[in-house]
Amino acid sequence: MAMQDVYDFFFDVNTLFDQRGLPRLEEVLRPANMSGTISDMITASVASHSRSLCQNKYHNGHPDLIVNGRYELDSVKAGEHGVEIKTTRKPGGAVDTHGARDQWMCVFVYQIDSATEPAANRRATRFTEVYLAHVTPEDFRRNNRGELGTRTATLHRDGIAKLRANWVYLARD
Q1: Is 96 helix (H, G, I), strand (E, B) or coil?
Q2: Is 126 exposed, middle or buried (0-12, 13-18, 19+ CB in 10 A)?
Q3: C-alpha 46: how far from its chain's center?
Q4: 105-122: per-residue pLDDT in tens?
């Protein structure tokens, strides 16, 4: 249902953009902004359809979805009970995080057609993979960054294998 909510949003927005002679939203947003937007939409939609999960109300809190009523005012800076939502264009679900944690992680992989010409014939953005797995700090590798870079961590080979073994959705072409 959450994926359908995202599809409906893009259909509505892109129909309006087309009527005004504007490019699709997918072509307007930078990749990191697009991923963040989809992640926020998935988080909100899953929360709205769930009986036991809600959005974490803490600004930039972790995880994105938390168990209803587990934390005061449904807000926690760093909680243990919930699901972190990530989105990426990378097939297989490899995605950077802001730290290696013991957590449930749900990764949505999406595909954007930015090559078909003319642009009016491009396929709609779609989800191709969804993974949900419990991962631990030992499943991550730390990514060294320069002085100005943000510290990140990514699932290493075995961590990715653990994530991929727990697929929820795989699109058939």
Answers
A1: strand
A2: middle
A3: 12
A4: 999 999 999 999 988 899
| Residue 117 CB partners (closer than 8 Å, separation 6+) | none
d(CA 40, CA 29): 14
Choose among 76, 72, 139: nearest CA to 104: 139
Which helix (H) or strand (E) element contains residue 68? none
Cis peptide before 118 (omega within 30 of 0): yes
Q: Are 108 and 86 in contact (CB under 8 A)?
A: yes
pTM: 0.92
List the strands of the sheet with 167-170, edge to edge: 53-55, 65-67, 82-88, 103-111, 126-135, 167-170
Pairwise CA distance, residues 108 & 119, whole Å: 25
92: left (phi over 0), alpha (psi -120 to 50) or beta: left
pLDDT in tens, 48-100: 999 999 999 999 999 999 999 999 999 999 999 999 999 999 999 999 888 88
User: What's the count of helices (H) and strands (E) in the chain, helices before strands?
Assistant: 4, 9
Coil vs helix vs strand at 29: coil
Look at strands 65-67 and 53-55 and give their pairing.
Answer: antiparallel
3-state secondary structure of 130: strand
How many other CB atoms are there within 10 angstroms of residue 13's CB atom? 15
